[in-house]
Amino acid sequence: RDYDAAIGHVEVVPQDFGRVILNLVGNAFDNGPGMSDEVKAKVFEPFFTTKPTGTGTGLGLSLSYDIITQGHRGTLAVKSEAGEGQRL
């Protein structure tokens, strides 16, 4: 781990933060052509998934969003343009 020193000291719950990192990395492997506005509006909703039936629960990004926004008072957003890829 090599973090930018400008970040300073940040207190987190290690198990929760680790889960968020795993969820974000896991979703990053599903790189695609970018998300429509309809998909972006739902991406952090529980049980929403764009994966084929049986390959995803739709809980990873929802859980990550709750951990970051409620548990750590942070923000988690998605930036994506249809046809141009996506970044969490």
Written overview of the protein:
With 88 residues, the protein is mainly alpha-helical. 38% of the residues lie in helices and 5% in strands. It has a two-stranded antiparallel sheet with strand order 1-2. β1 and β2 form a beta hairpin.
Summarize this entry quickly:
The protein has 88 residues and is mainly alpha-helical.
The average pLDDT is 86
Distance between the termini: 19 Å
Amount of beta strand: under 5%
The parts where pLDDT drops under 50 for at least 5 residues are none
Q: Which term fits the overall shape? A: globular
What share of residues is helical? 25-40%
Outline the biggest β-sheet.
2 strands, antiparallel
Structural class call reads: mainly alpha
Strand neighbour order, sheet with most strands: 1-2
Provide the succession of SSEs.
HHHEE
Number of strands: 2
Number of helices: 3
Gyration radius from CA atoms, angstroms = 14 Å
Name the features.
88 residues, 2 strands, 3 helices, 38% helix, two-stranded antiparallel sheet, mainly alpha
Task: Tell me the layout of helices and strands.
Elements: H1 14-28, H2 37-42, H3 60-71, E1 79-80, E2 86-87
Antiparallel strand pairs: 1-2
Helix pairs in contact: 1-3
